[in-house]
Structures are given as structure tokens and as C-alpha cells.
Amino acid sequence: MSIIENHKTVGSPLSEGAKLRARDVCVFYGEKQAIYNVSLDIRQNEVIALIGPSGCGKSTFLRCLNRMNDTIDICNVTGEILLDGDNIYDPRVDVVPLRATVGMVFQKPNPFPKSIYDNIAYGPRIHGLASSRVDLDEIVEKSLQRAGLWNEVKDRLHAPGTGLSGGQQQRLCIARTIAVDPEVILMDEPCSALDPIATAKIEELIDELRENYTIAIVTHSMQQAARVSQRTAYFHLGQLIEVNATDKVFTTPEHQLTEAYITGRFG
Amino acid sequence: MNYSTLLIALLIALGAAYFLGRNRARSLAGQGESMHSLPTHYGALTALWTTLPPLLILIMWVMLEPRIVDALLTMQLPEAIRTASEAEVRLALSKVHNIASDPTMMGQSDLGSVAAHLVDLEQRAAILKGGVILSVILLGVAVTWRRIQPDLRARGEVERIVRIMLFASSAIAVLTTLGILVSVLFEAVLFFQKVSPIEFLFGTTWSPQVALRADQSGSSGSFGAVPLFAGTLLISAIAMFIAVPVGLMAAIYLSEYATSRVRQLAKPALEVLAGIPTVVYGFFAALTVAPFIRGIGESVGLDVSSESALAAGLVMGIMIIPFVSSLSDDVINAVPQSLRDGSYGLGATRSETVRQVVIPAALPGIVGAVMLAVSRAIGETMIVAMAAGLAANLTANPLDSVTTVTVQIVTLLVGDQEFDSPKTLAAFALGLVLFIVTLALNFVAIKIVQKYREQYD
Fold it and tell me: Is A173 left (phi over 0), alpha (psi -120 to 50) or beta?
């Protein structure tokens, strides 16, 4: 596995009228380059899966899409990422509204040590989305319903969020992200810490969320990528090797590295 | 044979026994025997059995010899002294010891014969001691040497002995604490026989001077410790008022905002504050801060005592800052990064994240840190002794001079003392109160910190 010089992504990474466009994105951690010239479009209301072996840069790329890498001192991003045509790395862009628009769900469920209600209300409160208590109650209820958690927790909204099961916690984190009314949701291996039943529920939820949101999901499970996504992007050592419709990637991959990975020869 | 010779002999025995045991095991192995353990284990086992028993005997000897000698001497004392009070006997014995250490006095006292007996006893004891120790050493070598056989499980035995030695070491630390507690408790009980606990705990006048002789003019002493508790509380409160916000904010800056370069420089720099001897803080408080506060106070027309609670509290607060900041820094760093990511991912700013996620998550740990700092403040002596004064005023005015429990303990025990007067014993009662309060605070703090740890590890 060596770095392929000047690889040009095969398949169809670009598309007309995309929600998010990445152009020649490179990411450096200090001296070390983690991502090499990645260009990728993410369409409105699609689920795109980012797959690849560990350390291939898929999570790093995902974190570029809402500038989460800003919290790492030595991380440096070049290139452009356009959200509805505006570069999110423009110095004038404020990350606060950006991260509300492009929300994120993490690998390990990370509910705040607060009540279920306050976990959901946290985002709307800091962004001033609710003008009254009634408004806030409504946002909380709607978000929990969309995340498929309402029926399980409606009687204990003021119990601590950390007391829920792992799968419920992850749905709570999704509800928390939905509560600030995002347009794009980034998911970084959202099921890797969950059991198969909880995973199935989250996957079902992702499919439902596609109606209203644009979703990019990083996953190590190829079955999961096949089940939830419409397009799949294969990363290898910091380069975007291939982007194609999910069916095509898993049946007739264009690039030999993609084929090697999905047939389990490495990774 | 004196003790240092014996200790050197023990050290030599240690080395020699190790090599003897090891070589015996090696030679057995060389004869084709299959030994249970490695030769070094047999060496260690021989060394332990050779040195530990004589060492224990030596320690017992040091503790018991004076008692036995004194008991034997008492029987030699003249009938008149022996039947008199216990104090007389003790006095006579100490005279005998003095005479024995100075041969020129031997003939000059009626106790000379007893002293000569003591010298004789000590010589015999030294020979006996040397003989006993050497024979135990030899016995240890011989027995263990014989025991070294292929099926001797030396490894397990060495491990067991090591475990017992380690247990004994930790027991010493615990027993010392208990011993201190018991002795303080014992003296405090003596004090409470003279002064009622009610008066001590609730009385508002502190004036511990008592007449030492019957003909001495002076008060009979008054032991209401409330002004001391109030003074301690006032100064600690002022100190915490400075240390908690400053220390906490410094910790937040260091763990959440500072770049790693700044942190590498700032954290040790802050911890240097903790390395300054408290006596240096003390004269800083007494010579710089107190006059400064007085100057400011006078310029706005306030009456400020030259030794004020405010000065002592301010300086003590500065002293405690690194304590609070370094402990809080640790607990803030222990908050999982995933919680911060979750908050940033929702578009929260750094300060919103700190205020609403990080601090609430770290709160139990921070409370623990603050309580440890409080117990530190309560126990601090030098700064208050130098900067807050000795006057036991019952006041809430920080510009007045006050005194604290620790300062009074120092003043009660400095100089010539009589160890059965309530004035001296009062120090132990104060010490007991201090001990109980700080112990309770530490206990609660540790419980809180533990509870917090369980949540995230």
C-alpha cells in the first residue's frame, strides 16, 4: 500500500447542484499531510458513505466539513469547501452558525452530564432558537420524535442523559443535533460502539432522516455502507480513490484498490 | 559491642549470606539436581533469614533494655527512696544515670555504688547483646543453608517475606498517625478535666495566661476558643475568596484556552508559588502587604490595624492558588474530549462549552479540590502567626487583628512550659479540634473526588 502519485478520483465525485462541494482539500497535522487534494460533492438529501481502512483520512475529511478540525491547534486545511456556494473556510465565516447548519454525531455517544431535556435544549438555548418555554418544549419533543426516542423517554425527560442505554444515548445525540435545525448531518462511525439491535435502529433512523437532511457517514462496516447510503466514497491513505453509486461500488468497483478493500484483502 | 558495630556486622552478614545461599544452590544444580527456584532466590532467602531475625531482636533490645536496667537498679536503691513516691524513684534513677556517665562523680554520692552497678550492668548487656546477635546471625545462615534442597520453594517464601516487610512499612505510617491521634486525644482529655468542653467550645473569651505559682499575680485563665475559631474562619474565608476564583480561572485558561507552549511554561511557573516556604509568604504579608493595606485604609479614613486578617488572608489566598489550580486543572483535563466535541459540534463557543459542559462535568472534582484547599488554609500557621497578630478578638471585621487556632497552639507551646497546666494542655485540645476538622474535610473531599472518578474512568 503506497501513496499513488497524483491520483485522480475515479467514478463520479462531482455532481450538479450539490449541497456541499469540496475542492482540492488538503489537510496537514503539523508537517504530516493527512489528506491529499480531495474533491467531492455531496448532494441534497442523499446519504454518502465514506469508507476505507483505518488512518485513511475519512474521519479527518468529515471533520473538515464543519470545521471541527479548528479545535486542533496543529491542524491546517487548504482548498475550498463550499456550502450552498459559500466557502466555509472564508476568514469571514463564523463557525458558530456553520456548526449549527452542519451538525455532527460522534463515534462514542457523548451525552452531556445533564438531563435528557437539557441535552436537547442545549443547542436551541445557545443559539436562541426558542423564544419561550413552550417553544423549547416543542423543539425538544419534535427532536426526540424525529430521533425515534420520544416514546422511550417522554416520562423521564428530567432523568440524566447518561443513564440511558448506549443505543438510546446515540439517538439522544442525534436528537440533540437535529434540535438546532441543521441542513447537513455528519456522522463519524455512529454505530461502532453499539450492539446490532441498537445499530439497526440507528440505520433505520438514518434512512428516515434523509428526507429532510443531507447526511455524510463514516463507517467501518461495509454492510452498513451498503444498507444506508446511496453513494459511497472510498478513501485510501489520504486520497479519495473512487466515488460511485453504492450498488456499483459493492458489485463492480472501478479501481483495483476499492475492489481489494471491499473483498477483504486488507483493511 | 555498640549498635553501629552490630549494624555493620548485619550488613556484612547480609552480603555473605546471599552469596553463600546462591552458591550452595548453584553447586547443587551443578551436581545435576533440578532446583525449584533460581539460585538468586535461594541467596535472597538466606540473606533475609540471616538479617531479619537479628534486626528484630536488636529493635526489641533497644526498646526494652532501659526498662530492664531501670528495674534492676531500682532494687539496688536505698530502702528509703524505694518506698517513697514514684517521682522520687525516677529522680534517683536519673541521678544514677548522670553519675554513671561521669566517673569523677562516682565517689561523691551515696548513690555511687548503684551507679557502679549500672556501669557493670551496661557492660554485661553489651557483651550479651553482641553474643546473642552474632549467634542468631550464624544460626540463620546455618539453618537456611541446610534447608537449601532441590524441593525448597525459595521463590514463594521470598515473596511472602517481602510482602510482610512491605505490609510492616505501611503499617508504620498508619500506626504513627494513630499514635499521634491517641497522644493528642490523651492530653486533650487531661485538659477537659480542668476546663469544661462546653466552656472551651462555646466560650467567647480567650486568655490562656494562668498563674504558674501560687504567689504569682495573673489571671486564672479563660479558655473560650470561639474567637480562635472565628479568626480561623475569617482568614480562611478571605483566602478562599482569593484562591478559588483565581485558581479556578487559571486552571480553565491552562486546560481549555492556552496553547501547549504556554501551558508548558505557565504550569511549572504557577507551581513555583507552591514551592515558596510559607515563612517567606509570612514576612511578605507582615512587611509588605499589611502596611500597604493599612496605608490604603488610612487614606480613605478607615482604622486599620497594622496586623490585619485581610493581609494574612490575602497572602494565604495567593499561596493556595497553585493548589486549587493544579488540582482543578487535573479534573478539568479528565473531562472527556468527546463532551467538548459534542458541544463544539452544536456550534457552542469555547466559553459556552466551558461554562455549561466542562465545569458542570468537572464540578465534583473541583469541589474536592476546593475542600482540600480549605483544609490547607485552616492548618496554615506561619503566615497568620506573622501577619494576623495574637489578639484573640471576636470580630468579623477583616481590618482588625485576629488570631487563629494554629497560631495559638504555637504561642502556647513556645518557651518554658509546665506540662500539667491547662495553658499548655489547651494546645492539645486545639490541636484535636483542628485535626478533626481537617480530617473531616479531607474525608469528604476524597469521597467527592472518588465519586467523580468512577463516573468517567
Answer: alpha
Range of B61's domain? 3-152
- Is B183 inside a domain boundary? no
What secondary structure does DSSP assign to A187-254, as a single string?
Answer: EESTTTTS-HHHHHHHHHHHHHHTTT-EEEEE-S-HHHHHHH-SEEEEEETTEEEEEEEHHHHHHS-S
Judged by CB atoms closer than 8 Å, whether chains meet at B345 and A126 is answered as no
A150 touches chain B (CB under 8 A): no
DSSP state of B416: S
Nearest residue of B to residue A113, measured between CA atoms: B361
Task: Report the domain count for chain B.
Answer: 2
Per-residue pLDDT of chain A (267 residues; tens, 9 = 90+): 455 667 788 888 888 878 999 999 999 998 899 999 999 999 999 999 999 998 888 999 999 999 998 888 888 999 999 999 899 998 898 888 899 999 999 988 999 988 999 999 999 999 998 889 999 999 999 999 988 899 999 999 999 888 899 889 999 999 999 999 899 999 999 998 888 888 998 999 999 899 999 999 999 888 999 999 999 999 998 899 999 999 999 999 999 889 999 888 775
Touching check for A177 and chain B: CB below 8 Å?
A: yes
Among B260, B261, B263, B346, most A C-beta atoms within 10 A, so best to mutate, is: B346
Please give, rounded to a whole number of angstroms, the shortest distance from the CA of A188 to a CA of chain B.
12
From chain B, the residues in CB contact with A122 under 8 A are 343, 346, 348, 356-357
Residue A126 to residue B336, Cβ atoms within 8 A: no
Return the bridge partners of B223, or none. Answer: B206
8 Å CB contact of A126 and B344:
no
- The whole-number pLDDT of residue A1 equals 45
Query: How many structural domains compose chain A?
Result: 1
What is the distance between the alpha carbons of residues B250 and A175, in angstroms, rounded to a whole number?
35
CATH classification at residue A207: 3.40.50.300
Q: Which domain holds residue A101?
A: 10-111+190-262
- We report the CATH number of the domain holding residue B228 as 1.10.3720.10
Chain A residues with beta carbon closer than 8 angstroms to that of B366:
none
Asked whether residue B429 is assigned to any structural domain, the reply reads yes
Please give, rounded to a whole number of angstroms, the shortest distance from the CA of B52 to a CA of chain A: 54
Q: Tell whether B360 lies on the interface with A, counting CB pairs under 8 A.
A: yes
Pick from B132, B152, B172: which residue ends a domain? B152
Would you call A28 exposed, middle or buried from its count of C-beta atoms within 10 A (0-12, 13-18, 19+)?
middle
Chain A partners of B260 at a C-beta cutoff of 8 Å? 73
Helix (H) or strand (E) holding A82, with range, is strand A75-83
Q: What is the pLDDT of residues B131-189, one digit of tens each?
A: 999 999 999 999 998 998 888 888 999 999 999 999 999 999 999 989 999 999 998 99
C-alpha cell read off for A128: 436562541
- Tell me whether residues B361 and A112 touch, CB distance under 8 A: yes
Domain boundary among B152, B181, B196: B152
Instruction: Assess if residue B160 is contained within a domain.
Output: no
Residue A210, in any domain of the structure: yes
Cβ-defined contact of A173 to B342 (cutoff 8 Å): yes
pLDDT digits (tens, 9 = 90+) for B345-388: 998 999 999 999 999 888 888 888 898 889 888 888 888 888 88
SS3 A17: coil
User: Is A116 among the domain residues?
Assistant: no
Same domain flag for B247 and B342: yes
User: How many residue pairs bridge chain A and chain B with CB atoms within 8 Å of each other?
Assistant: 71
Q: Are B226 and B147 in the same domain? A: no
